[in-house]
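Instructor's aside before we start: the two examples that follow are unrelated to each other. I chose them only because their records fit on one page, so don't look for a connection. First example below.
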Amino acid sequence: MAFTLNLSPRTDMDEKRIIEIQSKVAGLLSESRLKQAIDTLEELVDELQEWGLRSQFNEMQTAYKYMLEYMRMGMPDPDREKLYANLTGRCYMLNDMIAAARISEHSTKVYCQMRRRYKNLDGLAALFDKLKENRANKEITKELPASECKSISNELAREHETLLPQLFGMLWSSISWSKSDAEYIGRIMDDHEIPAKDRAVAVSAITLSALKCFEPLKVITLCTIAGNSDTMLSTRAIIGLILVLYRYSERIKHYKELGDAIEAIKENAVVMRRIQTIQIQLLRCRETQKIDRRMREEIIPAMMKNPQLSKEKFSIDILKEIEESEDKNPEWKKWIEKDEIKSKVEEMAKWQIEGADVYMSTFSQLKNFPFFSEMSNWFRPFDAEVPSIAEILPADKSGNKSLIGAICNSQFFCNSDKYSFCFTFKQVPQQQRDMLMGQIGGEGDPSSQELDTAAEAPVEKRAEVESNQYIQDLYRFFKLSNYRHEFNDPFTEPLDLLIHDGMRELIENKEAILRTFRYLVEKEYYSEAYNVGKLYEQGGECDAQFCQEMGYCLQKEHEYNEAIDYYTKADIIKPDTLWTLRHIAQCYRLQGESDKALSYYMMAEELAPENISLLLQTGESFAAMKQYDKAFARFYKVEYLKPSSLRATRAIAWCSFVTGKDEQARAYYKRLTEMPSPSFEDFLNAGHVEWVTNNNAQAIEYYNKAKEVCNNPNLVAEHIMKDKEILKARGINEKELLLLRDLII
């Protein structure tokens, strides 16, 4: 793990050198070179100001020396292997802790400031007690007369806004935990006297702390919280656990208690189901940059071209609303029926339903409000009682059936974006604010329905929504916050648990592996999907669809022989499937084995004798085998079934040329070159027809037009030489070809 912190000139060892040593020690440990790792780490211990860490290092160093001495003396030690693993784990931990402590001695980075402010967790219990007291006082205040209530409530709110960042900072900057620390935090997470939203922020702080400086007790605590009955706490802990274990997967085996905690999680069916759901959600984060780019470059610009839509509609589920409401702008339907726009809106709606992050591009520019200058606020569940929000949203408005209420309660917006929306809303003139406050509320309105059903959703559905929102909150923090440079971004990693042996067990059941496999196939991560599929295969018998999908992954990776093997298995399991036969044929064709491809195309053709694409592929295979009569029969059939097929027209034109049917070839190429957008090859091949029939001037004219289309004379000459065997067969000799090439350039 590396830090990006700045040290002042007063430091005896600069940050770069500290990080180099830290990385070297970690590398040595990964290679099981414990002695060299300890000796290297000793350089960081010199001048270390934290005596507790120096003492821990000395104990570890001494224990290892004794172990080596006992071995030298030939003394039996049945626990030697266990002790070695324990010392390796301690060295990993101390390496991170000592590096963090050394860097923190003088750095001005926020983490280091917090480290200097909170040396340990001694004040943690007092902070939690103050949060309890703050909440209790809020409840008491509600019973006071309105004249007294407001000022006291405001004071308590301000106090809370001071306590929460302190709690976050103390937990985040903590390096070493004791067992009593971990046990206390585990208990406090079940204390309902502390607001769940405050405990949720604490879970985020623990996650960041464990990512920053690995400590098994922090991870064990996340394991404990993962089983919490509160879905918000549970999902946050599970996500934190996954991110930490993923980063430090190689270390897990060195900590028996951590291993035991992970084993205990496997016995919790609810947690295991949530891990499987969260795995897909984390994989989905890979798509965010692609979606963000398409939103900015294609979808939003296209939607903004329609003034009615951009001014009057906020929801993206336009198709659904057009169907359900009769009083909307009729221009929407007219606009939506345009194929290009309709497909974009449908795609956007599909992303939203899948849980994809479609709002990153919209809200990425809205993270500069003062609220986000406090790090802990990036991890706060949305709360209308936050003072800066309460002054924007009257209490009776934040939950009613208004546009603002719909946004604040929506499952499609993450917490961070809800805060951004509210602060942006504050800048809207009062008249427009009032209109938006009451704009939505009809019984048929989807946003209204969402408000009515959100609180009644099944527990696991709520957990799925909360985990998706929290992942998006984390994504925004690591990508957009001013603090992002102090962290290694976990979202730069694949976040595929199946990559690591130690983590694979968290989603080891066949159903979860298959779900991951199919998600990766759908999103076109073919190589990774194939590797996951191999894991699924180990679990036993596979069906035809799985074999098709595996073959498809291999085909996309250009592993055609292996793809054919899987397709053949699929054909055995489920014979005479058109899709399978066609793809076997494609693989043979891509390998240049036209005869084998043709046999499968013929079988497929029997199943779908009027399939346009199949007729073309079969015809092209016959042409490759120089069986032109059979090729023509299929191309003519396509021309009859689909007169607009340019592919059929080009195939007929080329086969006519090759077989000496020059007048027919000329007629077809004339048709192609007179179309609105003829291709480079159309002009090139039309030139061939004229050249072999001694219409040289017309041929040169076509070749020049080919040059204009591709803007590359050398490319035209290159293609002429590629076709030289065919041209020679039509009577053009080698010397004439060379002269033609020079004439074109």
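Example two begins here.
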Amino acid sequence: MENKVKRIKLSKSNYVERDVSWNYFNYRIIKEAEDKNVPLLERLSFLGIYSNNQDEYYKVRVAQLKRIAESVSKSFKDDKALAKKELEEIFHLTEEYRKEFNVALKEIFAELEEKGVFLLNENNVSKSQKEYLKDYFLKNIALYINPLVISKKANLSSVNDTHIYLAVKMEGKKESYLDDVTYALIPLPVHFCGRFISVPSSEKDKYYFIYLDDVIRLNLDYIFKDLPYKKYEAYAFKFSKDAEMEVESDPEEGILKSISEAVKERKKGIPVRVVFGENIPKDLYSKLIKKFEIDDLDIVSIGGKYHNNKDLMKFPRLNIKGLNYEPWERKEIKEVINGDSLLSKIQDKDMLIHVPYQSFNSFVELLQEASISPLVSEIRATIYRAASNSRVVAALSNAARNGKKVTAMVELLARFDESSNILISQTLKDNGVNVLTGQEGFKIHGKIVYIKLKNMKDIAVISTGNFHEGNAKQYTDCLLFTSNPKIVNEVKCVFDLIMMPYDKHNFRNLLVSPLHMEQVFEKLIKNEIKNNKLGLPSGIKIKINHITDKKMVKLLYNASSNGVKIDLLIRGNSSIIPGIKDVSENITVHGIIDRYLEHSRIFIFTNGGNPLYFMGSADWMPRNLYNRIEVVTPIYDPEIQKELEMIVDFGLKDTAKSIIVTNDGKYVKNKPAENNLPFRSQEELYNYYKNK
């Protein structure tokens, strides 16, 4: 009876719904902004990250919940009830966090004043500053101001949720033909003018800035000079629209045009969240509610004076010691420094690149070398997101111009990057690259490259993150360079799967979704239960972004309840509640928020004392396991295995920047033991690679 495997059922008491969990995660970013040990402008940037995350969350997740809640189908009865309950919980959490956000923002600006950095507003500028801002407005801003007067005939369908607006109330008419009150919207031209305007100062070591919003408030009389009212008031107005796209594929139009049209239509999406500036007059509030047809299920709130706080990420950087993190130099690998042939070096030994601690240049160098080498006959690559002016795209284009057979799988439906990826596709096509655009119903999320060589072993690259130069400066990701035929041949087969999805494809080494990844992970977890029952070494360590898939949660609970020790390092959504007696008491869940975004996915299974190591692009969410093509690779090189274990163990040891999820699904800060110094995993990893 002792060897009988226990099986756990999921319930409300041991499973956190994905969207509630996400709010807990984003709240942790506010807590990082409150950390006095973080430099002030970095704290300000964290508030910007929180705001940006919140915007995307409403456009995608909340919009989806709203669609379910408003469904007229009777078959969605239970889903509708759950969606409405979640929307209520989201609204509650949003309002709770908003108050803490505003307090943190005020505290940071108060501390910045102590450092000589001041944020002005339209009410506290001096006479000379006001004159300067009037002149600055006329020369640099006025040409970009295009007000929308709110009238019965006004067409507001093009009002864009990527902008922030000032809602203006004008009253005190001077002419009899005017209405007593007129309303207007002014889109803030942040893209052209920036959000923060520097104001000159004669005082040494003092820096003054003002929001673009307030510069415009100072000049409302000029903007509406052709509508001679006596009084002008302006309040922030912002909303988020449903970002889902309906792509109707027309063979005659082509997929590129279909997606382009869908992106345009997205801008006319239905509002799902509306935020008004504080103290907005009731009549202006009512006018906007009516004009934009905002209903009871839309989340409406009254915020502070300023919105679109994602712009805090771009607050001007100042040459004042201690306001920002000291830069960490990205380490070039010795092969790049020495000018060695990477194609040759990878023949001898697998290589692991850990960005941003190590430079992404090594990947670009590999593609550039492949693009001109007479030994290379073919290159295949997936592109989910790429940087503007991408050197990756340039290298693939150059390879095609040099007569290589180049195939690029560009995922056109990478959310919010659709327009960028359409341009990338066209650039690659123009240079002779064979561009694939994926399968209907399945995003291609795996990050892989295949390079075919003459008289040498072929090469593959498998990454945990995008081949994106910008991301590689901020996201922690691992790239495996290998010539191991067991892996390389199957990477080639993944491209065959993309091109010929209805053919039979067998994978003995790679874990590929939606084919069999979930089944392999299930087998690996059950193997740990079996080993534990036999008295053999067992255990699971996972570093991942999200775990919300109910089957995977249940499997981990089963393993825990059967004595398997499980350590999870989860950056974002976690539906797991650790520490529940007889369910998850053998599970610990850690999370890290620091100067880099934790993004790599690493899986380690003890396997009776002969550990198995994996890394790849997939999280444990339904979309990754069942609705996307994802790739996770085994790691066979002992040195790389050791490095991956170090990366995970450093994260689990972190007592400076990590949290531990508690048995109510929330979290507490992970603190060092008494008399021990804090251990900061990202700093320790930086030092490791610096000295490697």
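DSSP finds 20 helices and 27 strands in the chain.
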